[in-house]
Amino acid sequence: MRFLVALGLLLSLAGGVEVKIASYNVENLFDMEYEGNEYEEYIPNGDWGWTQDIYRAKLRNIAKVIRGINADIIGLQEIESERAVKDLKAELNRQGLYYRYHLFARNKKSTVSTALLSRYPIQNGWRHPINHNGQLRDILEAKLDINGESLRVFVNHWKSKSGPESRRIMSAKRLIYRLDELPKDEPFVLLGDFNSDYQENIVFLKSRKHNDTEGVTGINHILRTIDEDGKPITYTSLASPYLYNLWYDLPPEKRWSHQYKGKKEGLDNMIISPALIDGKGVEYVRGSFQRYEADFLFYKGKPYRWQHTKGYPKTHTGEGYSDHLPIYALFRM
User: What is the model's pLDDT at position 119?
Assistant: First the structure.
């Protein structure tokens, strides 16, 4: 016991601070203010019964998941407004989890956007639009101060698979343009719902609906998570200009966060830069990447998504969580 205490003290004095970073698509957190761009089922006091009580239930359920993850920094997707972010922070506070800092990527033409909660100071934040008409969701960039060390986190929510790969490539190109502006030794984490499997370059080849780019994908080719021969970048092969997708830290049967019509995909991703394994400053803890898979998040083997009644008219029941599983990883000074 004395040895463990001494070791803990030594790590603390040596800067051995451990930081947990997570990502979670919360499946449509809408506030109670009507703005006119809400999905039909989330119009305040509308036919679907999106009432103040149901809104509070949604906040409690999301907060329960985030409290279970207990991340220091968490990127969120499908948030309607900054009001919803603040209400979520208040609910988290009631449940004993306090985040002092937050960012919200407000795009008035997008129904839902991304957000970031942090226990660490946010030095600066940017919102990166994808196109001029605002139909694609902005990318949120945050520069964080981790005990004197800088770390950038990019929160993504790319176009859903209702659209072809060319739409997701637009987001990937905007992101890589920004990354190429940074110094080569800049540590950064890309996270969020990319609506792309970690091996999208393989799984979408037979899909005429999605493959309108002659086999080129945003997450693999544009973000350079595969090499010139199409082989995935590994932890040991990671070097500039390539990036490493942390799904490869898990066995293949665990590499999924979303299930649709029986098909499991790793649509939620966490991707790191070479600077996070160079032995300097903030470092990725190898093998720490995981899904948060508490029992209550599953129903019959599938993510226990936010529930509606099955009859017509459908209404919110106040039960369930999200159609996505959260993911997280550890980083250490």
Answer: 98
Low pLDDT (below 70) residues in the chain: 1-15
For strand 302-303 and strand 298-299, is the pairing parallel, antiparallel, or unpaired?
antiparallel
* Cβ neighbourhood burial of 3 (10 Å; 0-12, 13-18, 19+): exposed
Interval 181-210: pLDDT, tens: 999 999 999 999 999 999 999 988 877 789
Between 52-69 and 82-94, two packed helices, what is the crossing angle to 10 degrees? Answer: 60
The pTM for the full model equals 0.94
The β-bridge relationship of strands 18-29 and 73-79 is parallel
C-alpha 98/C-alpha 105 separation (Å) is: 21
State how far the Cα of 118 lies from the Cα of 103, in Å rounded to an integer.
Answer: 9
Q: Whole-angstrom Cα distance, residue 20 to residue 24?
A: 13
Whole-angstrom CA distances from 241 to 59, 74, 96, 156 are 40, 26, 41, 20
Give the homologous superfamily in CATH for domain 19-332: Endonuclease/exonuclease/phosphatase (3.60.10.10)
